[in-house]
């Protein structure tokens, strides 16, 4: 493994890219490469394996897409074959990478498709079988397609593992190893990660050949242009404080991170009741709902997007000015990644953390990790001693009682909202589960919903070409269950690990 810390590239024009790619770079407003781009692009363009380290928001996506696309454009055409594969840990990040890739290949013959859970498999299978040169995928759903014979990688030239540390955190290593067995040994492999623990180095040794190691020495700190503030406040008053912070004239939008999905729902609901346009995004929401929330946030329809950490590395809003940690992050690395959602593309931003008395130790742990004290702040005019009218959390026993009442009232036809596992069924189960002929009750109900999800999912729409022959694989096809497929729609039992949340 060779190390390099010296950047020789100062402008994109120096690269002498193919005209269509150079035009795309100019159209997208890229003039000077970021540090990680300047370090990684020269060896990647030479065909070397690259092991890159850089903080979230530093430009890693362009760092691997540019040499990948250039290689495909300059090489011998292999029609209707997958020539490049990008693996990412979350749906949001895969969609973000796809968006950039589509801009870069706009006036080229190359086709791009994204493969991830939470949406129907049939359009994805049609895109893979029909031929698409660049595939951007989450590991779990891609493995489904490999096992079903939809994905063929005999012509693969480039593999990219993006946010490799996050994929390991999410337990994707076994799936990654299975995927790699389906790939040719002769290929270029680019591996990028925000951190470089021993597991990532071992991964590099296993899957790369004499890689060039490049890295931006950020020392585990958020970007220099991020203002970090911490507010001491009781848990019960956090929503009120967030509302007060959002009322400041300099806050146009904010991304708010919570510890759990339930808390994300409650925070969004309470902010809406306070007259603040808010949406939420987390693993229990359908892909259609997550896409609408993210698009609405990017367009300015929503002032606030409340998210769990599933979105921490998949939301790219270049001008986002504020990130608010509603709960102190569990790990210091998560804090850095969350803060990295702001101050992107050289802009400034503010990262705010709310901490209750029992969260002080976690905040100090973050400060030790980053080597920087976070400034303590107070919101003028806010009553920190007020008594809230209602708590944030609905007690677990009350939530379970409500679920039981809803389940018993609806009988066998009830389905879950989006690929959350097999036994409760996908959305398709909502339409057909009641016709399964099974008696009502918790056990029979789950079976009926699951069967309904499978039947409904059996009718797939065809992938429709659009935007440079891109296959639309994000929205469920007509007549297709959300979370459709052998694993994501039904047939695995309630809460199965391979539901549509990948």
From TrEMBL:
It holds the Pfam family Helicase_C. Residues 10-38 form the DEAD-box RNA helicase Q domain. A motif (Q motif) lies at residues 10-38. Residues 41-214 form the Helicase ATP-binding domain. Keywords: ATP-binding, Helicase, Hydrolase, Nucleotide-binding. Residues 409-436, 446-461, 486-502 have a biased composition (Gly residues). This is RNA helicase. PANTHER family: ATP-DEPENDENT RNA HELICASE RHLE, ATP-DEPENDENT RNA HELICASE RHLE-RELATED. Belongs to the DEAD box helicase family. It comes from Deinococcus aquiradiocola. Signal peptide: none annotated. Residues 225-385 form the Helicase C-terminal domain. GO terms for molecular function: ATP binding; hydrolase activity; nucleic acid binding; RNA helicase activity.
């Amino acid at each position: 493994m060779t190390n390099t810390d010296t950047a020789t590239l100062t402008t994109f024009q120096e690269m002498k890219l193919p005209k269509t790619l150079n035009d795309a770079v100019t159209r997208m407003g890229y003039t000077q490469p970021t540090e990680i781009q300047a370090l990684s692009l020269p060896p990647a363009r030479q065909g070397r394996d690259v092991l890159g380290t850089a903080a979230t928001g530093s430009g890693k996506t362009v760092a691997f897409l540019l040499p990948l696309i250039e290689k495909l454009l300059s090489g011998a055409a292999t029609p209707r074959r997958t020539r490049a594969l990008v693996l990412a840990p979350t749906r949001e990040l895969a969609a973000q990478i796809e968006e950039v890739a589509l801009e870069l290949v706009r006036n080229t013959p190359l086709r791009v498709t994204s493969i991830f859970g939470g949406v129907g498999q049939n359009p994805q299978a049609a895109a893979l079988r029909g031929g698409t040169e660049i595939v951007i995928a989450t590991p779990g759903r891609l493995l489904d397609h490999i096992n079903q014979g939809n994905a063929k990688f005999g012509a693969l030239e480039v593999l990219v593992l993006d946010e490799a540390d996050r994929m390991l955190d999410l337990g994707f290593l076994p799936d990654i190893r299975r995927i790699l067995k389906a790939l040719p040994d002769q290929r270029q492999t680019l591996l990028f990660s925000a951190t470089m623990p021993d597991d990532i180095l071992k991964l590099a040794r296993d899957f790369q050949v004499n890689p060039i190691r490049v890295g931006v020495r950020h020392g585990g700190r958020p970007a220099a242009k991020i203002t970090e503030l911490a507010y001491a406040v009781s848990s019960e008053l956090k929503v009120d404080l967030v509302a007060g912070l959002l009322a400041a004239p300099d806050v146009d939008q904010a991304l708010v991170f919570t510890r759990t999905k339930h808390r994300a729902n409650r925070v969004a609901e309470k902010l809406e009741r306070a007259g603040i346009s808010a949406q939420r995004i987390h693993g229990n929401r359908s892909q259609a709902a997550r896409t609408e929330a993210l698009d609405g946030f990017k367009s300015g329809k929503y002032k606030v997007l409340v998210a769990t950490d599933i979105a921490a590395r998949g939301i790219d809003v270049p001008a986002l000015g504020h990130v608010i940690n509603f709960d102190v992050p569990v790990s210091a690395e998560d804090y850095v990644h969350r803060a990295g959602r702001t101050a992107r593309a050289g802009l400034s931003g503010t990262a705010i953390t709310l901490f209750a008395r029992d969260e002080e130790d976690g905040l100090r742990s973050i400060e030790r990790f980053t080597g920087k004290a976070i400034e303590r702040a107070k919101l003028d005019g806010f009553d920190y001693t007020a008594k809230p009218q209602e708590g944030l959390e609905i007690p677990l026993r009350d939530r379970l009682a409500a679920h039981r009442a809803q389940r018993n009232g609806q009988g066998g036809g009830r389905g879950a909202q989006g690929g959350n596992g097999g036994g409760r069924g996908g959305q398709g189960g909502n339409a057909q589960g009641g016709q399964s002929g099974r008696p009502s009750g918790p056990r029979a109900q789950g079976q009926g919903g699951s069967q309904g999800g499978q039947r409904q999912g059996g009718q797939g729409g065809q992938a429709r070409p659009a935007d440079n022959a891109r296959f639309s694989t994000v929205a469920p096809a007509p007549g297709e269950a959300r979370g459709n497929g052998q694993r994501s729609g039904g047939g695995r039992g309630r809460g199965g690990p391979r539901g549509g949340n990948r």
